[in-house]
Amino acid sequence: MYLNDDVTILKGIGPKKEAALNKIGIHTIKDFLYYFPKNYEDRREVRPIISLQEEETVLIRGKITAARTYTFGKKQTMKLIVGDNTGKIEVIFFHRAYLGKTFLKDRTYEFYGKVTSWANRLQIVQPDFNLWEEDNSPEILPVYPLTKEITQGNMRKWQKEVRVCIPELVDFIPTEIIYRNRLCSLQYAIENIHFPKEYQKIKEAKFRLIFDELFLLQIGLLYIKMRFNQIPNGISFSKNVTIENFITQLPFKLTGAQKRVINEIDKDMESNKVMNRLIQGDVGSGKTIVAASAIYKAVKSGYQAIMMAPTELLAQQHANGLREIFKPLGANVELLTGSLNLKKRHQVLANVKDGKTHLLVGTHAVIQSDVELNRLGLVITDEQHRFGVNQRELLSQKGENPDILVMTATPIPRTLAMILYGDLDLSIIDEMPPGRRAIITKVIEYNRRDSAYELVRKEVKEGHQAYIVAPLIEESAVLDVKSAINLYEELSKKFNNFNVKLLHGAMKQSEKDCIMKAFYMGTIDILVSTVIIEVGINVPNATIMLIENAERFGLATLHQLRGRIGRGKHQSYCILITEGKTELSKERVKILENSNDGFYIAEKDLELRGPGEFFGVRQHGIPELRIADLSKHIHILEMVRNEANNLLEKDPFLLQKKHQHLKKQIKKNFNNIDNISL
Ligand code: ADP
Ligand code: MG
Predict the structure, then answer these.
(1) Phi and psi (nearest 5°) for 174?
(2) Which 8-state DSSP code applies to residue 499?
(3) ∠ CA 622-28-173 to the nearest 5 degrees?
(4) Of 358, 369, 421, 422, which is closest to residue 394 (Cα–Cα)?
(5) What is the C-alpha to C-alpha distance for residues 23 and 11, in angstroms, rounded to an integer?
(6) How far is the CA of 539 from the centre of ligand 2 (A)?
(7) Which of 418, 486, 565, 581 could form a cystine bridge with 572, CB 3.0-4.6 A?
(8) Most informative mutation of 283, 288, 407, 429 for ligand 1 (most atoms within 8 A of CB)
(9) Is the CB of 283 under 6 A from ligand 1?
(10) What separation in Å is there between the alpha carbon of 403 and the centre of ligand 2?
(11) Atom of ligand 1 lying closest to residue 254 CA
């Protein structure tokens, strides 16, 4: 058996089990070794039966003194009385009367399970068990995450079989790094993560494996960035195009942060290096105008630009806004979304291809292969966290090494940004345009929501507008939450003297556009919606954001939603209605009451929910983390970052012989690194 052998080489793995294993990412023997336990059971201490207490999980060893089956519900249940020389306890197997044949009198068995009590008697229900033999050595047993088709017993047995391949594993971390950071060897780590003799060894093993995972991720991203920065033939946009000319004709003064970031971009664009920059700025910090200045630079230098946004609404709004800005400058802006009719689409594509269009704004539709440009110089993605590395790559392939700008309003804690966007240069807009009033945020319990609706009524009477957000489109039987449709029906009665309209993602595009336009123009007073209004939408006259079942949303999302208001000169209110039954969910939502700082909120969200939830779907094109946790292992991340930087400083292209295993491993992890042009 070898590391790269297929799992089917093991006995007992036929097509069904193979398929089940593949589903959890196990294809080869090596994959087994990298399939880690989620925790451990301590089976080293055998407990005297007399000492057992309710709620403990214990290992006991004894003989069967009585066994009987009885009918409990529809199926037969078996009850054993197990005794050692201190006492007796009941052991119950529901629906498993067939075990009757398994247990032999006069033999000793071990049972591992949780002690419960029933009618004042202690029991162990559905325990693990095995026949005890004199030479059984006590163990710490691994507990693996499983699927329906695979039992814990299966997994443990297979792991024992593939153990012989551990010596074949090749350590890809350079020796100096191993010494400097006091890491155990890779083989030791894999051995002890699966077959530990002591808890201390699990700790050493984990540390090493977490280090490996973060190191590969970090050095991989830095390596990509390094290669990228070496590409000399990026576009040098004209030094004669001065951004000042653009800035002075704007209707407002830029903030210091906007100016700083615009200068950083300008410098990147003038150099022959390919720009690859991330703009992070809280909602409302004014990212669009920063993007517009980059577009100005590109277009005035004779190039075309693309701006991609994650939703039709947002794309449309950008197209409208940018059209207005660029019309007096003689630049043509076109919008491309999936809902254009064929004729219009052909026309847009033709204009883009022959260069008549200077800026193409759109949704994912702009990635499609029939979108060809004449002279693409700049690619911008708005709300970057909604897109992945691959999409950026596909877009940039429409030109010859165009400059790239990505923008996000999801404030990402610095450590995370470090690793996730290790491939990007970072600019932060950390200052809000002047004259904004802080939004007042209030958390209100469901049974007191009438007071919230009163506030809505008052604001709308004064000529302002309100958003009311529900978590789902249709009522869900499973989750007891407000649906947008139900809520709409309820509220249009309640507010029957106002214009209330409904907006959700399943509506036809033309309908959505119509409604959004009407809200924008101020003819709709109250917009009941799902989260599709989350990103980017800008209606300064809206002063109320009321969110139903706020406990169902992530903090980052709530913060984004709140960012839809407070955009004009009037006082705005964000009301979070909660039906949260747990304290934690209430406490979580309260964080928004006390802070308007997106970065702080993001830190808290990360702390409370972990990075998986934080980012939603895996969409970054980065390898999955199995054992490392970006919110917990920050100190290891820092060690790793130092080492990765050091190493690449000495050997930027990983050409040295001692780095070949590492290079191979990076390529494997980022599977086609050579095609990635970030
Ligand atoms: P976001 O960063 O959330 O994308 P936007 O770019 O949509 O923010 O800007 C929000 C609003 O603030 C827009 O109406 C925009 O015109 C306005 N704005 C941007 N910068 C400034 C500024 N320096 N002074 C005043 N208003 C500004
Ligand atoms: Mg925006």
Answers:
(1) -55, 145
(2) -
(3) 55
(4) 369
(5) 19
(6) 12
(7) 565
(8) 288
(9) yes
(10) 20
(11) 23
pLDDT, tens only, 225-284: 676 666 667 899 999 999 999 999 899 999 999 999 999 999 999 998 889 898 988 878
Report the alpha-carbon distance of residue 286 to residue 33 in Å, rounded: 49
Max intra-chain CA distance, the chain: 96
> In whole angstroms, how far apart are CA 297 and each of 236, 246, 501?
11, 9, 40
Ligand 1 binding pocket mutation candidate from 252, 280, 430 (most atoms within 8 A of CB)? 252
Query: What is the number of the ligand closest to the CA of 258?
Result: 1
CA angle, 262 as apex, 258 and 266 as ends, to 5°? 175
Query: Nearest Cα to 538, choosing from 572, 511, 563, 575?
Result: 563
Separation of 288 CA from ligand 1 center, angstroms? 7
Q: What's the pTM? A: 0.64
Token readout for 504 is 């959700």
Query: Is 523's pLDDT higher than 60?
Result: yes
- Between the CA of 280 and the centroid of ligand 1 the distance, in Å, is 14
Cα 245 to averaged position of ligand 1 atoms, centre (Å): 19
576, 558 contact by CB (below 8 A): yes
Question: How many A from CA of 126 to the centre of ligand 2?
Answer: 55
> Which two structure tokens, joined as six digits, stand for 153?
């017993």
Of 221, 228, 378, give the one whose Cα is nearest residue 293: 378
Closest residue by Cα to residue 371 from 357, 383, 390, 389 = 357
The dihedral through the CA atoms of 443, 447, 450, 453 has a sign that is positive
Given the CA of residue 287, which atom of ligand 1 is nearest to it?
2
Return the SS3 of 408: strand
Apex CA 46: angle with CA 45 and CA 51, to 5°? 110
Q: Give the model confidence (pLDDT) of 472-503 as tens digits.
A: 766 655 555 568 888 999 999 999 999 999 99
Residue 631 is given by DSSP the state T
Give, to the nearest 10 degrees, the angle between helix 555-562 and helix 583-594.
Answer: 40
Detail the DSSP E strand segments found in 8-107: 39-43, 57-72, 75-83, 88-93
- Strand-strand pairing, 57-72 and 39-43: unpaired
* Closest Cα to atom 5 of ligand 1: 286
Distance CA 85, CA 83 (A): 7
**641: its two tokens:** 């970052």
Which two structure tokens, joined as six digits, stand for 409?
């309003």
